[in-house]
Amino acid sequence: MIVCVAVVGHENNPLYLQSFTEADDALKLHHIVHSSLDVIDERVNNPKKSGSTLNETFLGLLYPTENYKVYGYLTNTKVKLIMVMTDLDVKDADVRSEVPCCIRRCCLQPLPCSREDDYLQKLWTKSW
């Protein structure tokens, strides 16, 4: 289950951060997201140590905590998409396709759409 989604700008400025848990966990999740920025910077600046190429946008598992797993995605404009999950048994291959899709749904569709827009929304979602 996704508990937090964040979009961070190229200068590590938070553009969007949404947690889907109780208010008590929100501060902890914000701290986890900000801590993951150091891991992203390390992977981008040292690609030989992390094993990923510069063309790779999915950064994979950034780091696990006791209760969460943090995944990252880097766009070609250096905007970072971060997702915190409680599913500890999920595989990287399953998350790879879900990170941009989940963040797009959370950020661009924060409110439920009407029935008239439902058809257009499905078409738009399938085109990605």
From TrEMBL:
Which residue ranges does UniProt annotate as crossing the membrane?
A: none
- A single Pfam family it belongs to is Sedlin_N
* Cross-referenced InterPro entries: Longin-like_dom_sf, Sedlin, TRAPPC2L
List GO BP terms, alphabetically.
endoplasmic reticulum to Golgi vesicle-mediated transport
Question: Could you state one GO cellular component term attached to this entry?
Answer: cytoplasm
Q: Which Gene3D superfamilies match?
A: 3.30.450.70
Stated family: Belongs to the TRAPP small subunits family. Sedlin subfamily.
What is the recorded name of this protein?
Trafficking protein particle complex subunit 2-like protein
Organism of origin: Phoenix dactylifera
